């Protein structure tokens, strides 16, 4: 008993000494007909040479985890503070360290200047396409996603094709409603590069003299597309939860798209503290932030009874 330093080590277990002078633990299955080592396992302290058994069992069972090693050992031995002892032994296993180690993480890089500069809303814009979506008449449409790189606000347009002409029309609608951006980020798609090449052929010196129009800067930068690609997924998730397998006409789908736009623009930009105001992109777009259309939903004639349930789902 000298190897057990304190009485508390044996406080919650019933120990007896057999005819050979070996300390064993009485278990609840004492009256079962089985091997003595299983009915009354040998008591071992947490720190002794016999703990090498743990490493042997661990390796023989294909580098098993704590729970499995403990189960196997309990068939013959009762080690005090079993889980802690096994955890300490398994922590020294080189192979488990090799295969269980996490990859090294890079230090967080600072945001590019275009995402932290002081500017107006939609002055620095990211353009992307999501879809396709199917209309009731069988046609396909895509969602043109314009994202403000600084304030996180979005503007959505529906386009009927992936051509350069559709991109030009969507860009014109965006400019007349949200203002002319100074910088546009996009991917390297031909429908994005085509209009850029056509604009570069214009005489910008003459345009600036006559119309005082500043040339927009175009940047094709797919490696940094992760954050705005995530917004495209948010839009598709809202549509999937709201519409399911429903197929709508163009005008009704456009209405739902506008609802998705308002939901994302109402998403808080920062962590919400108790008793604090929510800072949302919508505050930078319009002064009147009331988006309630309950009265129009009440007079709906029944052909478009899809409630904007994605407000609660988001």
Automatic annotation (TrEMBL):
A Pfam match: Integrase_H2C2
Alphabetized InterPro entries for the sequence: Integrase_cat-core (IPR001584), Integrase_H2C2 (IPR041588), RNaseH-like_sf (IPR012337), RNaseH_sf (IPR036397)
All residue ranges annotated as the Integrase catalytic domain in the record: 109-289
GO biological process: DNA integration
Gene3D superfamilies from the UniProt entry: Ribonuclease H-like superfamily/Ribonuclease H
GO molecular function: nucleic acid binding
SUPFAM superfamilies: Ribonuclease H-like
Record protein name field: Integrase catalytic domain-containing protein
Source organism (scientific name): Araneus ventricosus
């Amino acid at each position: 008993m000298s190897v057990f330093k304190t009485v508390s080590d044996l406080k919650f277990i019933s120990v007896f000494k057999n005819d050979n002078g070996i300390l064993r633990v009485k278990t609840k299955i004492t009256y079962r007909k089985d091997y003595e080592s299983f009915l009354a396992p040998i008591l071992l302290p947490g720190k002794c040479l016999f703990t090498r058994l743990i490493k042997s069992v661990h390796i023989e069972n294909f580098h098993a985890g704590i729970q499995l090693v403990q189960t196997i050992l309990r068939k013959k031995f009762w080690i005090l503070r079993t889980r802690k002892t096994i955890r300490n032994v398994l922590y020294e296993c080189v192979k488990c360290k090799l295969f269980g180690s996490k990859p090294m993480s890079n230090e967080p890089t600072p945001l590019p200047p275009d995402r932290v500069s002081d500017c107006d809303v939609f002055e620095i814009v990211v353009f992307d396409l999501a879809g396709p979506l199917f209309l009731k008449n069988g046609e396909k449409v895509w969602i043109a996603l314009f994202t403000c790189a600084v304030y996180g606000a979005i503007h959505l347009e529906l386009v009927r094709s992936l051509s350069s002409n559709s991109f030009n029309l969507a860009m014109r609608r965006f400019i007349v409603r949200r203002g002319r951006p100074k910088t546009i980020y996009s991917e390297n798609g031909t429908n994005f590069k085509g209009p850029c090449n056509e604009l570069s052929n214009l005489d910008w010196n003459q345009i600036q003299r006559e119309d005082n129009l500043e040339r927009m800067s175009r940047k094709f930068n797919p490696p940094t597309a992760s954050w705005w690609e995530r917004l495209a997924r948010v839009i598709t998730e809202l549509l999937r939860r709201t519409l399911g397998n429903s197929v709508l006409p163009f005008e009704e789908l456009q209405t739902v798209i506008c609802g998705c736009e308002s939901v994302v623009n109402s998403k808080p930009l920062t962590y919400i503290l108790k008793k604090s105001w929510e800072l949302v992109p919508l505050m930078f777009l319009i002064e009147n932030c009331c988006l309630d259309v309950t009265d129009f939903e009440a007079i709906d004639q029944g052909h478009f009874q899809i409630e904007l349930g994605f407000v609660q789902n988001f």
